[in-house]
Structure formats: structure tokens, C-alpha cells
Amino acid sequence: MEGKKTAATTAEMLAWSGGGGGGNMVRDAVDYRGCPADRSATGGWVAAALVLGIELCERLSTMGIAVNLVTYLTATMHLPSAAAANVVTDFMGTSFLLCLLGGFLADSFLGRYLTIAVFAVVQSIGTALLAVSTLMPQLRPPPGQQATAVQMGVLYVCLYLIALGTGGLKSSVSGFGTDQFDDRDDRERAAMGLFFNRFFFFISLGTLLAVTVLVYVQDHVGRSWAYGICAAAMLAAIAVFLSGTRRYRYKRSSGSPIVHILQVLVAAARKRGIKQPLTAAALYEDRPDHARITHTAQFPCLDRAAVMAGDDDNEVAGPDGRAAPNPWKLCSVSRVEEVKMLARLMPVWATTILFWTIYAQMITFSVEQATTMDRRVGGFEIPAASLTVFFVGAIMLTLAVYDRVFIPLCRTLTGKQGFTNLEKIGIGLALSIVGMAAAALCEKKRLAVAATAMATTGNSTAAAALPISVFLLTPQFLLVGAGEAFIYTGQLDFFITRSPKGMKTMSTGLFLTTLSLGFFFSSVLVSLVKGATTWLGDTIDRSRLDYFYWLLAVLSVLNLAAYLVCAMWATAASTPEHQQQQHTAGDADEKC
User: Fold this and answer.
1) Sign of dihedral through CA atoms 65, 66, 67, 69?
2) Where do the domains of the chain lie?
3) Do 343-592 and 1-253 have the same topology in CATH?
4) How many helices (H) and strands (E) does the chain have?
5) What's the pLDDT score for residue 324?
6) Class of the CATH-defined domain 343-592
7) Mean pLDDT of 141-169
8) What Cα–Cα distance (Å) separates residue 414 from each residue in 310, 427, 449?
9) Cα–Cα distance between 286 and 319 in angstroms, integer?
């Protein structure tokens, strides 16, 4: 085995300049042996379908655990309501934050193929351990007692192994799926556009199965059985994924985007006292004309990284003793412009975080609300976490209506292809505001019924299900779900289309960090509100969750106003007229 590399590693690491490489060869892609990829024998929908399969099982596993975890923490581990909600949001936040780590490893060392395979195995191990931990009575506290530090510690180990696996593989799945299509071929480029729609459909399908089938198994058969099914599904998905090794196309990495960004920042900081040249043409550039990115005058402080300082920029490279630019001292204009492109994404990035804080309430407090309400439909009682089926259903219905009805209608009436990515994000933010207002009104009604029930029974808490239908929660699930359909697709499109070509994995990770920070902000906000007010008590019936929902609605209104300003700036910055104005202004400044 020594002296040999795995097929996937060879495929990812071998550089093939290609230059076309023949009529049936895919430029910039290799097969599992490291040879130029044959279009007829590699890639396409057959390979992409195997990638979609592992995403389906990942969502089934992660969401099958997350959506019903809060009921396990409150009913079995006996944690207070707010503490249980924070455990869930911290778990989900960590999962998405670790996408940055997965992207870094994929770009710098492992490649996307190995990153998916390795971290999928990690997630399978974590899920299997979780199944075992929920089966052992020693790891559950006796009735009426809160879980001990050891019991919670074992649970945390299992959850964060799952989070590590999820973050690692999720950062590369969409990128590896698009690697199976050649964007230089018209037919394959069209198929790549369909891949994003089907990718999100499989995400929703996995979530739908999680909140229906798996939640039912957890509540009526046993959590250990449900988590065991998740582990088995992931192992099956890994086997199917590996079976496509010979069929996949592999793209060589141009290096870690994080390192490239740091190089620009360090080089610019080192030269902060150097006077910039009179013309942009005097800045350093090492790329051929067809691969260059045009210089812009925005963020001029970063241009210092491309200012040439003679021998100070060079270092001895190789045994021949020839000097070459040190990338930590001198960067090309195109490299600087790539960093500027990422910087332009940040205002929109910052103003989309709050939506995912609202999303977090759908799998924490909203599920807790459902546990107290009448969930009977005939002789069948709906599991509380299965109410999120309305959430997933709203996503899938919104996407279907948008694709099949709205876009053709819009194309006929206006000639446009529907909403832009920024418009989609704005619609999603607006729907989340309405969703939180509906949630606050629903909770006020539920609390009134709970107060009446407690007064009637004389107990401090309502022992049985409240005489109020759980379907009263439907509007908040539908509104926030429809909002996610718009904002998720809008964000993904925005970050991928407006990022540098060599930083697609990085931009996907950047997008997923908005989910991570949204979950973490939910934890912080819950802790602050619990410490400063009496709105969040030990049980949901002794809380004023409606006040918390109104707080989120008000914050979302302010956030939407900030987003609109950022979106107008981003739209203006992307127009050709504005770009020309930037160049003209830059030249004028340089002549002064």
C-alpha cells in the first residue's frame, strides 16, 4: 500500500492543464485514475444522483435527531425549557459552523470526494453512539431528577460527533455534485441549474421523512431504534456513494481560499505606509489576460497588497536560486479583486443571520408548544415534532408553485425569469416577520387556555393536553417555511454567483455560517432574555413566550430595513454602469 495513493486523492491532486484535451474530454476535470475525464464515461446525472443520495440520508439523520431532541431533553433528561432549546440550537449551530472546517480541509488537503466519505463515516459513528446511549438506562436520570454532568457529557459527545460529520460533508456535497457537470457545455450547464433545484428538493425530502417517519418511530417504538435507522441509512449512503468512484469527475484544487484571503490581508497590512502608484496598470498581475479580474476602485486599502516594492517582495524559490514573489508580501490584482468580491457579500451575509434565529424557534419552542396541545386526529395522536411537516410542506409547495406557476407567468407577462436572488431573500425576511407575529398571537391564545385549565384543576401546571387544537400552530410553520424556500435558494444563488470562481466552496461555507450564527444568536438571545426578564420560565406554561416572539418580530423589522439598504448597495455595485463609474473615479483619484 505504501507508495500508492488512493484513486480519489490522485484524481484530486493531479494537475491537468488540458487546454481542451480532445473533443470528448472535460477540461479541468480528471477521472479516478488522474487521467483527463471522458465526457461519455464520467459525470452527468448518474454521478450526481449518487451525491444527492448521501445528502438525502444526511438530512434524514441530522433533522431526525434535531427536530425531536427538545422533547427528549425536557421529558427524559429533565432540563428546563430554555436550557433544552439552547442545547438544540448550539448543536445545529455547531453543525453549520464546522462547514468552514470541512471546506478548508477539502480545498487544502483531502479534496471533496474524500472529505465527504470521511466525515460521513464520522457522522455514522456519532449517530450509532447516540442510539446506544439512549438505550442504556444508566445514561438517563431517574424520574423527577435532572441529568447529571456525566449523562449530559456522553450526550454531548454523541451530538458533537454528529455535528462534526454533518459540517464536514455538507460543505462539499453541493460542490462535488456540480463538479459532475461541465459549465463550458451548454447542455451540461443547463443540467447544473437543475441540479441546484433537485439538491434542495432532496434536502426537503430528507427533512420530510425525518419529521414524519423517524419522529413517529422515536415516539412510538423507541429513540434507539430511530437513531439506529439513521446510522444504517448513512452507512448505506456511504456504500452507494463509494460505488460511484469510477464514475465521478474530480476537479483539482487551486489551494485554500482562506490562505489566499489571509495573504492579501497580510500583504496589504505590511504595505499600509507605502504610497500607491498613480495608475492601476502599475499594480502587480501574474495571470494571463483571459484569467484576469478587472481592477475596481472599491476598497482601495486592499490594493496595497498588489503594490510592487522591488526586492522586498521576493524570496528565493527552489535550488536554482531564482527569486519569485512572496505571496505574503505581494499579491496579484486578480487575487485582490477576489477578496473584494467576498467583501461585497458581507453586508447581505450579516443581514440574513436573523432569519435563521427565527427558524430555530420552529424546532425548539414551537415543538414544545405542540407537546401541550391537543394533537388527536380521530384515534391517532400526532407526534409533537411531526408538526414541522407543515414547515417542510410549505417549503416544497412554495418551490413547486414558484417554478411551475409563477416563473412561466412572469416570463409571459414581463419577459423576466422570476425574482432575483436579492428579491427572494427580501421576501423570505418579510415572511419571517409575519410568521413571528402569527406565532405571538397563537401563543397568547394558548397561554389563556393554559391559565384557564390550571385554574380549573388547581394545579400550577396543566397535567393533560390543553383543550386547544395543535393546528393553531400551522400559520407560523407555513409562513416561516415559505420564507425559508425563498431565502435559502436566494442566498445559495447569491453567494455562488457573486463569489470568485476559485472560491465556490468557500462561498458555500460562508452561506452556511449564516445558519450557524442564527442558531448561536438564538442561544444568546434566549439566555439574555431569561436573565433580564421573566418571559422564559422553567416550563412553557409558566413563560410569556409570546413576548419573546414579539421581540423577534421587532428585531426582524429593523433587520429587514438594514437588508434593503444593503441590497440596494449590492445591486448598484453589480451593474455595469456602476463598475464603469468605479473605474473612472479610481483613475481620477490616481491622477490627483
Assistant:
1) positive
2) 1-253, 257-339, 343-592
3) yes
4) 20, 9
5) 74
6) mainly alpha
7) 93
8) 56, 19, 49
9) 22
In this prediction, residue 437 carries a pLDDT of 97
User: What angle is formed at CA 14 by the lines to CA 10 and CA 16, rounded to 5 degrees?
Assistant: 145
Question: Can you read off the three cell numbers belonging to residue 415?
Answer: 419577459
DSSP letter at 458? -
Residue 224 has a pLDDT of 93
Q: Give every CB contact of residue 394 below 8 A, 6+ residues apart in sequence.
A: 477, 478, 479, 480, 481, 482, 485
Report the pLDDT value the prediction gives residue 459, as an integer from 0 to 100. Answer: 64
Closest CA to 348 of 237, 436, 418, 422: 422
Tens digit of pLDDT for each residue in 263-290? 999 999 998 887 766 577 788 888 888 7
HSE (side-chain half, CA atoms, 13 Å) at 372:
24
Cα-flanking dihedrals φ and ψ of residue 12, to 5°? Answer: -75, -35
Helix axes 186-209, 389-401, angle to 10 degrees: 160
For 66-96, write each residue's pLDDT tens digit. 988 999 999 899 999 889 999 999 999 999 9
Given CA atoms 556, 558, 564, 569 in this order, what sign does their dihedral have? negative
> Cβ distance 114 to 390 under 8 Å?
no
Q: Contact, 383 vs 68, CB < 8 A?
A: yes
| Identity at 421, one-letter amino acid code | N
Which amino acid, residue 315? E
Are 234 and 120 in contact by the 8 Å Cβ rule? The answer is: yes
Look at residue 175 and give its three-state secondary structure: helix
C-alpha distances in angstroms, 223 versus 208, 219, 261, 397?
Answer: 18, 7, 44, 30
CB 42 within 8 A of CB 29: yes
Query: Among all chains, which residue has been given the C-alpha cell 420560565?
Result: 537
d(CA 360, CA 358) in angstroms, rounded, equals 5
Q: What is the value of pTM for the model shown?
A: 0.80
* Strand 466-469 versus strand 373-374 pairing type: parallel
Residue 524: C-alpha distances to residues 69, 85, 275 (Å): 19, 11, 44
Which triple of cell numbers denotes residue 88?
438544540
Which CATH fold would you assign to the domain 1-253?
Growth Hormone; Chain: A; (1.20.1250)
Angle at CA of residue 348, ends 361 and 261, nearest 5°: 115
Output the nine-digit C-alpha cell for 59.
438530512
Degrees, nearest 5: CA angle 445-446-447? 90
pLDDT, mean over the chain: 85
What pLDDT is recorded for position 155?
Answer: 95
Give the tens place of pLDDT for each residue, 156-205. 999 999 999 998 888 888 889 888 988 778 888 777 777 877 887 888 88
pLDDT at 84: 92
Higher-scoring residue by pLDDT: 545, 7: 545
